[in-house]
Write a structure and sequence with these properties.
Layout: E1 2-9, E2 14-20, E3 26-31, E4 37-44, H1 51-54, H2 60-68, H3 78-85, E5 94-100, E6 105-112, H4 116-125, H5 131-150, H6 159-168, H7 183-188, H8 191-201, E7 207-213, H9 219-229, E8 250-255, E9 262-271, H10 278-302, E10 309-314, E11 321-330, H11 335-355, H12 357-371, H13 382-387, H14 399-406, H15 411-421, E12 427-432, H16 436-444, H17 447-452
Parallel strand pairs: 3-7, 8-12
Antiparallel strand pairs: 1-2, 2-3, 4-6, 4-7, 5-6, 9-11, 9-12, 10-11
Length: 455
């Protein structure tokens, strides 16, 4: 196991160490003096966005994740798994879990640090695919997944899924459906589908390992990790399908009969850079805080138009782009005024504020929160969240670099970013109990439509 990079994060006292194992798998170890846990994750570039590429039904990745936690050749029954994972007076319990996203499958295990070797033993067992045994367990698991699916609305009644179709249909369809698949997809998944997806995706190039613990990894642990990693077949990292997403004026609507107000989202695509642009990252943070501040102060406190205003940045909906923007909910009779006042706030008030003495004091305060962060709640998923960037040929975020660059940012940088941002055409997604025509009229009568919806 070769150390290839290391830095000590001055802002959370954690040392980030990246290793390369003998078969090329990257491992991130967070040496965290504040923990007594041993957190371990195997992460595979095997999310639902690869199902179409592999020619398997939608929901196969999630189904596979379920199957891997079932009894296998090492732990032959559920009782065997329970006995191994349970603790007693002499040993800690271990907690195994798994989850699927559109990009990855995560296999995780957490325990007190004295249970670290048992964690590794349990994680090793999850790399098996005993086809005959899984075949016998498959219908039981299918029933569980169908029950899980039954908790969700029908596809056409699910505002979230409809928003994904609005954004991605016929552009990147692999990100436009439910991770579970639809019921008809779940019913037709076969053991051969699971095996095909497992064999094609579970290779060394599509794998990273994340660990969070206190202190250096001792030799017995690193040797055991190398043994486990060698059970993952050698293979190159599989590249995702490249797409081009364009910011353009589009309005999508969803009628939700139970809605009490009108929810409006402004959504923008932002091309992902392989190397982190720390200046842009900090400016986007400050921009978000600016919108939080002004909308709370003016649209809520002075005008009573909204309760809250959410700025978001989402990185798991595309390999090539982040999605960012903002969302708010208001009453039907206030939509027209809200859109007018929001337009004025963005295009006029924000610049006046940034030029003012109060705006300069606000800017210094926001930079202060970036430079002097407070202690955050312990996050057992910190390592696995950090290392997934390596599965996309990216880099691990370094707070030291981020703060050093943030200190150099000026109000002029924020004004320049804001000016450019306000010329970007938004995708607008609206949810309410109104008809599509009624919602379209509201948006098309707004100053945003007058600016961007030009024939």
């Amino acid at each position: 196991m070769k150390l290839i990079s290391q830095f000590s994060n001055k802002y959370n006292n954690i040392t980030y160490k990246t290793y390369e194992l003998e078969n090329g798998i990257k491992l991130l170890h967070l040496d965290n003096p504040a923990t007594v846990d041993f957190d371990f994750a195997l992460i595979f570039k095997a999310g639902t966005s690869f199902e179409m590429k592999e020619g398997v039904p939608k929901g196969t990745a999630h189904f596979l994740e379920h199957m891997l936690l079932n009894p296998n050749s090492t732990f032959k029954t559920k009782a065997d798994i329970d006995r191994f994972e349970q603790g007693n007076k002499d040993r800690p319990a271990i907690y195994t879990n798994a989850y699927t996203t559109r990009k990855n499958i995560y296999l995780t295990c957490h325990a007190n640090e004295q249970g670290d070797m048992r964690v590794l033993d349990r994680m090793e067992s999850l790399l098996q695919f005993p086809k005959r045994k899984f075949s016998n367990q498959m219908e039981k698991e299918r029933g569980i997944i169908l029950a899980e699916k039954s908790r969700k609305p029908k596809r056409e009644k699910d505002g979230y899924l409809m928003s994904l179709e609005f954004l991605f249909k016929d552009i990147q369809d692999e990100f436009a459906y439910d991770v579970l698949g639809e019921s008809e997809d779940i019913k037709r998944i076969t053991i051969d589908d699971l095996e095909k997806f497992y064999k094609n995706r579970y290779v060394s190039g599509n794998t990273v390992i994340a660990i969070q613990s206190n202190g250096d990894l001792r030799k017995s642990l690193t040797n055991r990790i190398e043994e486990i990693a060698k059970k993952i077949p050698l293979g190159e990292m599989d590249n995702h399908r490249e797409v081009e997403l364009e910011n353009k004026w589009r309005v999508g609507t969803f009628t939700e009969d139970r809605a009490n107000g009108v929810s409006i989202s402004f959504i923008y695509y932002d091309k992902v850079d392989k190397r982190i642009d720390y200046k842009k990252y900090a400016i986007e943070y400050i921009y978000g805080r600016l919108l939080d501040w002004l909308t709370f102060d003016i649209l809520r406190e002075q005008m009573s138009l909204i309760y809250d205003f959410s700025v978001f940045r989402i990185g798991n909906m595309s390999y090539d782009y982040n999605m960012n923007g903002f969302r708010f909910v208001t009453e039907k009779e206030k939509v027209e005024k809200m859109l007018q006042e929001l337009y004025t706030l963005l295009h006029t008030t924000s610049f006046i504020f940034l030029k003012s003495k109060r705006g300069k004091e606000w800017f210094d305060d926001v930079i202060s929160t970036y430079v002097f962060p407070r202690t955050t709640k312990f996050n057992e998923e910190l390592a696995e969240n950090a290392i997934t960037a390596l599965l996309e040929d990216g880099e691990i975020f370094n707070s030291n670099t981020a703060v050093r660059i943030a200190k150099k940012i000026t109000i002029s940088d924020i004004k320049e970013y804001l000016t450019e941002r306000l010329e970007m055409k938004p995708h607008i997604w609206v949810e309410s109990d109104m008809t599509q025509t009624q919602m379209d009229i509201l948006i098309n009568n707004s100053p945003f439509s007058k600016k961007f919806n030009r024939v």
